[in-house]
Amino acid sequence: MKIYKSAVNLILFTVILPFIVGNNALAQEKKQLVRLAKLVIDSAQLNTYKTALKEEIEASVRLEAGVLTLYAVAEKDNPTHITILEIYADTAAYMAHVKTPHFLKYKTATQSMVKSLELVETVPLIPGMKIK
């Protein structure tokens, strides 16, 4: 009987438990909202825009637990074309983010600077990958 219990425990801890934990982690990752924000900025206001964007991103990452990543890049040959990788813990975190004072300040301040904005919903190809 003791051998039987040991075998059951071995199966539980080496086969079944990792499967359950892995599926739970995968379910949590699927809840994440991941998107690209593609913007074109008025070239005459680019430096002012970048200052406002930096302030907003730093505040969001520092103050909001649900904001996992906001990473902005500009195209090398087209510096007015900016793409922001946005990763939120879930849709609720995103909805809370767009109501924060720092985000509303950014949206109001940059409204006239943004010539176009496209939000691209994405599906992570490697959902468990962590950004260092």
Topology, element by element:
Elements: H1 2-31, E1 33-41, H2 46-63, E2 67-74, E3 81-88, H3 91-97, H4 101-110, E4 114-121
Antiparallel strand pairs: 1-3, 1-4, 2-3
Protein name: Antibiotic biosynthesis monooxygenase
Pfam families: ABM (PF03992)
Domain ABM: 33-123
Task: Tell me about this structure.
This protein has 132 residues and is an alpha+beta fold. The protein folds into 2 domains: 1-31; 32-121, Alpha-Beta Plaits, CATH 3.30.70.100. 49% of the residues lie in helices and 25% in strands. It contains 4 helices and 4 strands; from the N terminus they run αβαββααβ. Strands 2-3-1-4 form a 4-stranded antiparallel sheet. A hairpin with a 6-residue loop joins strand 2 (67-74) and strand 3 (81-88). The radius of gyration is 21 Å and the shape is globular. The protein starts with a helix and ends in an 11-residue tail after the last strand.
Task: Fill in the keyword field for this structure.
single chain; 132 residues; alpha+beta; Alpha-Beta Plaits; 4-stranded antiparallel β-sheet; 4 helices; globular; monooxygenase activity; Dimeric_a/b-barrel; monooxygenase; oxidoreductase
What is the class of the largest domain in the CATH system? Alpha Beta
Classify the helix fraction into a percent range.
Answer: 40-55%
Largest sheet: 4 strands, antiparallel
Number of strands: 4
